[in-house]
Amino acid sequence: MKSAVFDVCVSGSGAVARALALALSGQGWRVALACEPGSLAPREHDIRTYALNARAIAVLERLRIWPQLKQFASPVHEMCVKGDKGGELSFSAWQQCVSELAWIVDAGALERLLGDAIRYAPHVTQIDAVEGEALPVQAALLAVCEGKHSRTREALGASFSRREYGHWGLAARLKASRPHAGVARQWFRSPDVLALLPFHDPEPGASYGLVWSLPQERARQWLAEPAEVFEVGLMEAIRESDPAGAAQVGQLRLHGTPAAWPLAVAQASPWSGPGWVLLGDAAHQVHPLAGQGLNLGLADVDTLAAVLREAREREPWRSPGDERLLRRYERARWMPTRAMAGLTDGLLHLFAQDQGVVRELRNTGMGLLNQWSPLKRWLVGQALDR
Ligand SMILES: Cc1cc2nc3c(=O)[nH]c(=O)nc-3n(C[C@H](O)[C@H](O)[C@H](O)COP(=O)(O)OP(=O)(O)OC[C@H]3O[C@@H](n4cnc5c(N)ncnc54)[C@H](O)[C@@H]3O)c2cc1C
What we know:
This is 2-octaprenyl-3-methyl-6-methoxy-1,4-benzoquinol hydroxylase. One of its GO terms (biological process) is ubiquinone biosynthetic process. Its cofactor is FAD. The chain is of the alpha/beta class. The chain has 12 helices and 17 strands. Strands 6-5-11-12-13-10-14-17 form an 8-stranded mixed β-sheet, sandwiched between helices. Residues 11-17, 34-36, 48, 50-51, 129, 145-147, 150-152, 169, 171, 211, 261, 280-281, 288, 291-295, 297 line the site of flavin-adenine dinucleotide (FAD).
């Protein structure tokens, strides 16, 4: 194939690559999207539900994806977090003066709608990325959105320091016997963390997306169990942590087959160089306990698109691959991703300790934080990334 010339080549097949290709094409850049063959067609069902924050929703609104995706989304009005010895922390949208704390979206629907939009985007050319072969394009900027296992990142010489937690994130869809009332629930059970995200599918008003991070061996065992045994084990875990919460949730039934992903914390360095840049999980990976991985990736997209747009207006002599521009993006995104990785990692470590004093302190700390509205408001502001 003859080499074609583009402003930006986006390499990747996930939500971050798709969102970036759309955002840049919306600004009039000529974009090549190099993705795995067939990956834009509807794929195998992804059982995950994602919690998306205000900034991620704003990005999807600008990409004109949100009106359709909203039909596959449920708002979170309240969040209830429980410790492992009476500690409790709750947030509500009305106390924080926001209409919702987050939206829970269907992972498959998000990718599908982004893929549909790309098919009609005026300046995006989709090309097949074939492993081991050079891309048949020339572009001023190569934006690498290939996820945590990116080969291109490695070829560009960026390091990726990665620490495995030895835990898997187990995801499933659940039907509940009682309405969820827009309440998300999370239990820190040391060492596992269990979260129920209110959703509307399969049962409107009474479904949840489960995210349960637990030691790899136990995750493997749960995946091998028949549905009835899984359901009993899940209910027992919730009841053991929080009998009142278990009663509010009601009986949970599995819908579909659970799946699990290995969990790690990782950070690439550097994130950019002459003519290339990293975004999304290719640049950073965080534990899903705060539901922030994709939110960070969509914030990367937003920031890079803004840097390139501003540069075109104010410094039109610069090419999109100009290292100075890419460093502006890297500087803007480095701190927020480091902070989120530090926060999730710190919480995990705190709740992994089983000495009595530490347990007492962390639960007391949760109670104190719960009564301190300004700090709570600040925390919610960080999570919403407004
Ligand atoms: C259990 C679980 C729950 C989660 N919940 C949340 C949540 O509630 N909220 C949230 O914000 N985040 C959540 N996350 C994190 C979120 O899933 C990731 O951060 C997000 O999917 C990263 O998107 P990405 O596009 O950067 O990478 P990926 O989704 O990994 O996509 C990259 C894609 O590019 C492909 N690829 C690789 N190499 C190439 C190549 N050379 N050419 C073309 N394509 C290539 C890969 O195969 C892959 O399909 C969760 C994660 C897990 C595991």
